[in-house]
Structure formats: structure tokens, C-alpha cells
Amino acid sequence: MQRALLFLFILSVQFTVAQTEEEQISIIKGTQNLELDFRYSGSVNEVGSYGDIIDQGKSKLFGISSSYGVAVAKNFVVGANLQFRYEEEINVNQGDDQIARIERFYGFGLYGKKYWNITNRLLLNGRAEASYSILQITDMYKKGSLFRVGLRPGLTYFLSKQIALEGTLGFIGYSSIRLEDPEGSYDSYSKIQSFDAQFDTSELSLGVSYYF
């Protein structure tokens, strides 16, 4: 995913010398935008002793989101999105893979996205957003909710005046997770709140946008 994001920079090099100010691509007021983003990450963890693997685990994450926005000013878009994220942890014991934990997130968000030209086709962007998700965790048979508000820095590279590649580079902000007890028992709950900056692979995404 990191290599894909760096590809946005590489594509811009061949255009930076010959372009003029009149050719600079901007998002004018009234422009509409459709965007589809993907994210994926995976990891393998091992616990061993003197060369022998005692325990091994694998994890993977897949996410997809679709957005619709409208430019309310030059290079400033406001909009809404739908989100889905799937996380899975697998225990590996003597070649037998066992799914230990699955988390599913179904979410909705609102955002404002500001763009700044780096070159005539490559733009830096900052996306301020607030989102709410319903989540399910299989190993604890729990349901809950996730609320996030923060900023996502990113890059936009226009392949043409209407089609662009989009990259998101992380998340900086506040998160709150609330989990209810299983089987409809609401006598107790757990809540986790945090404010941090996350730039790992779980917060990197790559997508494509259509401006019209």
C-alpha cells in the first residue's frame, strides 16, 4: 500500500516542467465527486523458544468506502460516505488454521476535504471527518459502536480533468469504542477512548475518484 501511495508522486514528475498556470487542475465550485476507496493489510506473528515455534497467528484487514461530495468553494468539498471494514485473526497450530476473532464495522460519515496544488496535477488534501459505525465481534459475541472524529491527510493525482487517484496517509484524532454485554444484557459495558496519530497500514487507503 505504501508503494502505491508513492506512485502518486512518481506520476507527477513527467508533467511538472512543461505545464503552465492555465493547465493547473482545480476543483471549481459546484463540481460533484464520486469516490471509491480500498484498504488492506496483513501480518504474521510468531512466539517461539530456542528455534521452535510455540504459537503462530495471522491477521488481515479489508475495508471499502464509497463517498459522494460537492465542492462548495474552489478546492473545498463536503460530502458523506458509507464504510465497511472486516478484520480477522487466525491461530495457526501445526498447520491447522482456526479463526479466533472476527470484527465487522458498518459505518456512515460526514466530511469536509480541502485541496492544495503541489503541481498542476498533484494535490495535497486534508480531510476532516466524523463517523459512526456499528461493530460486531465474534469471539466475545459482543456488539457495540465506534465513533471517530479527526483529520486524514492524503494525496490526489489527476489522470485527467475528471478521473483521479486518491491516497489516504493516516488518521489523527479521537476514537471512542463502546461494547455491550452479550445476549442483550445491558447491565454493564466497556468503553475505550483514545486520541492519537495512526500511520500504520490499517489507516492507509488507495482509491479512485470521478469529478463531474
TrEMBL record:
InterPro entries reported in the protein's UniProt record: OMP/PagP_B-barrel (IPR011250)
Keywords recorded for this protein, A-Z: Signal
Lineage top rank: taxon: Bacteria
Signal peptide (UniProt feature, chain positions): 1-18
Protein name per UniProt: Outer membrane protein beta-barrel domain-containing protein
Organism of this sequence: Leeuwenhoekiella nanhaiensis
Lineage: Bacteria, Pseudomonadati, Bacteroidota, Flavobacteriia, Flavobacteriales
